[in-house]
Design a protein that fits this description.
With about 190 residues, this protein is mainly α. The chain has a single domain, classed as Orthogonal Bundle (Helix Hairpins), CATH 1.10.287. The chain is about 45% helix and about 10% strand. The chain contains five helices and five strands; from the N terminus they run H-E-E-E-E-E-H-H-H-H. The strands form two sheets. The chain has a three-stranded antiparallel sheet with strand order 3-4-5, with helices on one face. A two-stranded antiparallel sheet has the order 1-2. Strand 3 and strand 4 form a beta hairpin. Helix 2 packs across helix 4. The N terminus is likely disordered. It comes from Hibiscus sabdariffa.
Length: about 190
């Protein structure tokens, strides 16, 4: 692991608000403060958020919902290309990616930290809060996809296999089904 990563981790933890800075040495682009993680998100020349080479939905534009079908394979290939173009494969070891993933999960957790229970659909959230949540969820997803690629794991197949194993381990039954009638037989009488 490059020796600068622990120091940069501490610097990042102190910078709560995301800000842009000057051109990044290797890419010549404007990158957010999370550039030390080598590679998955930043800002393009027009100031729009870019994650793994994809311009993401922002308040002012970007990819609109329904414009593109997104699969794990598409994300995997985009991210591999993105890292290769910047010569960042050298930093994308399983350990480094896992630590970056954990950091992003921490940022995701911060969003919910003081909100208490939140209803489905986030009806009381402002649009900018939902956009921020989407960005942090995307960071987690992208690091997970990149980690699985670097480890040689087909994440889609592994997830389907795990879902099948969970179905066997936790079979659906009337006992576990909240819509069931709690074992009481209801019959029509005449």
């Amino acid at each position: 692991m490059p020796s600068f990563l622990p120091n940069m981790w501490n610097q990042r933890r102190r910078r709560r608000k995301r800000t842009t800075r000057g051109p990044y040495k290797e890419g010549g682009s404007m990158w957010a403060t999370d550039t030390w993680q080598h590679g998955l998100s930043g800002l393009n020349a027009m100031g729009r958020k870019v994650v793994a080479g994809l311009e993401v939905q922002t308040m002012n534009g970007g990819i609109q919902e329904g414009d593109q079908s997104v699969s794990l394979d598409l994300l995997k290939h985009k991210m591999a290309h993105f890292a290769k173009e910047r010569n960042w494969d050298q930093f994308h070891s399983p350990r480094n990616l896992l630590l970056a993933l954990v950091g992003e999960v921490g940022e995701l957790s911060e969003i919910f930290q003081w909100k208490g229970e939140v209803p489905k659909g986030l009806p009381d959230w402002k649009e900018e809060e939902k956009v921020h949540l989407g960005e942090e969820l995307s960071d987690v997803l992208l690091y997970l996809v990149r980690l699985s690629d670097i480890c040689g794991i087909d994440l889609g197949k592994a997830a389907l296999r795990k879902a099948e194993l969970n179905a066997i381990k936790y079979p659906a039954s009337k006992k576990n089904n909240p819509n069931a009638n709690n074992g009481i037989s209801i019959t029509e009488s005449g």
